[in-house]
Amino acid sequence: AINRNLQDVEGKVNVSFEFFPPKTPQMEQTLWQSIERLAPLAPSFVSVTYGANSGERDRTHDIIKSIKQRTGLIAAPHLTCVDASKDDLIAIAKDYWQNGIRHIVALRGDLPPGSTSKPDLYAADLVEILRSVADFDISVAAYPEVHPEAPNAQFDLLNLKRKADAGASRAITQFFFDTEKFLRYRDRCAAIGIDVDIIPGILPVTNFQQLRKFAGLTNVAVPQWMHKAYEGLDNDATTRNLVAANIAMEMVKVLSREGVDHFHFYTLNRSELSYAICHLLGVRPQLAL
Ligand code: FAD
After folding, report:
1. Is 50 exceeded by the pLDDT of residue 2?
2. Cβ atoms within 10 Å, residue 268
3. Which of 93, 221, 226, 281 lies at 20 to 30 Å from 124 by C-alpha?
4. Using a 6 Å cutoff on CB, does residue 159 contact ligand 1?
5. Is 18 within 8 Å of 267 (Cβ atoms)?
6. So which residues are the signal peptide here (predicted)?
7. Mean pLDDT for the chain?
8. What separation in Å is there between the alpha carbon of 147 and the centre of ligand 1?
């Protein structure tokens, strides 16, 4: 059954890959090995995160520049507005545009720990600011299980609509594990008139312990079957990788059958699992580096 389902979607699938700025020379080497492995799959774009409040926007920009130079791929920096003024953002946007960057992943960013005041700018405002500077291709974030700060699901959905109406071209979702939740969310987006692509963010989970902590902060449910799947594997990275690939494969298979034709991979700077999942989706090397 797996072959039949995957062949059905072969040739019609787009992928994109997300990376983060490495902190050590060794991590940097891993990142470049991963980019070199994944680039020939001709992703629609690759993106590089920027930690809000980290003050390391230049590092994100440097990696974006290097990816563009070394691979020719469309490389999109993530940009947050929680830690910048409107004037700063206009200057950054102008600088990006002048440097040939045309695609930006526009985010608010998390509030600094302990902060109680309302932020001046939300992601929808950032989309508007970027649009006022130039004709950027803009991706935004979406939350099938509702953003933790949203007063309710409808408010959060309307927030995505505001981002789309302000000029975003697509929404990339927070990672999730219950495909039904994604599909129902996609339906609700359509029903409310959000006409941009809702792209599932796929996280192959190789470190379950870390996921459990992170999922709590992000309001993402980790189903009981996943706890069971990773049980007893804390010291067995090889089996964890196989389990991770299997779970992510199952998810993309279900989503493909429901017409999803673009998957965004949270690679965590590793290529193996994303590459294998792409391979099974029929996404094969096309570009020679
Ligand atoms: P928004 O869309 O602005 O929404 C934030 C919250 O505010 C929501 O609860 C929304 O409902 C609410 N809200 C919106 N407008 C208003 C309003 N006017 N009044 C009151 N409430 C409002 N973080 C980083 O620091 N760096 C990254 O590189 C990064 N990349 C990410 C990539 C993806 C694909 C995703 C899904 C998330 C990423 N994040 C990143 C995390 C993101 O910054 C956080 O989830 C952040 O808390 C919300 O960002 P947002 O862009 O979704 O914000």
Report:
1. no
2. 18
3. 221
4. yes
5. yes
6. none
7. 94
8. 7
CB burial readout 100-133, b (16+ within 10 A) else e: ebebbbbbbbbbeeeeeeeeebbbbbbbbbbbeb
Write the pLDDT tens digit of every residue in 204-215.
Answer: 999 999 999 999
- Cα 27 to ligand 1 centre (Å): 27
Structure tokens at 109: 């960013």
Q: What tens digit of pLDDT does each residue of 240-257 get? A: 999 999 999 999 999 999
Please tell me the residue having the least CA distance from ligand 1 atom 1.
Answer: 123
Q: At what angle do helices 123-133 and 153-165 cross, to 10 degrees?
A: 0
Q: If you search the block for the tokens 């959905």, which residue do you land on?
A: 157
CA distances in angstroms from 235 to 203, 206, 232, 248, listed in the order given: 20, 12, 8, 21
3-state SS, 153-205, equals HHHHHHHHHHHHHCCCCEEEEEECCCHHHHHHHHHHHHHCCCCCEEEEEECCC
pLDDT range class, residue 71, cuts 50, 70, 90: very high
Secondary structure (3-state) at 62: helix
Q: For 2, phi and psi rounded to 5 degrees?
A: -60, -40
Integer Cα distance of 205 and 95 in angstroms:
36
Whether the CB of 110 sits within 6 Å of ligand 1: yes
How far apart are the C-alpha atoms of 88 and 92, rounded to whole Å? 6
Q: What average pLDDT does range 56-78 have in this prediction?
A: 96
- Any atom of ligand 1 within 6 Å of the Cβ of 150: yes
E strands along the chain, which residues? 14-19, 45-48, 75-80, 103-107, 137-142, 170-175, 197-202, 262-266
Predicted confidence band of residue 1 (pLDDT cuts 50, 70, 90): very low
Mutate to test the pocket of ligand 1, among 53, 54, 89, 122 (most ligand atoms within 8 A of CB): 122
Q: What is the DSSP letter of 54?
A: S
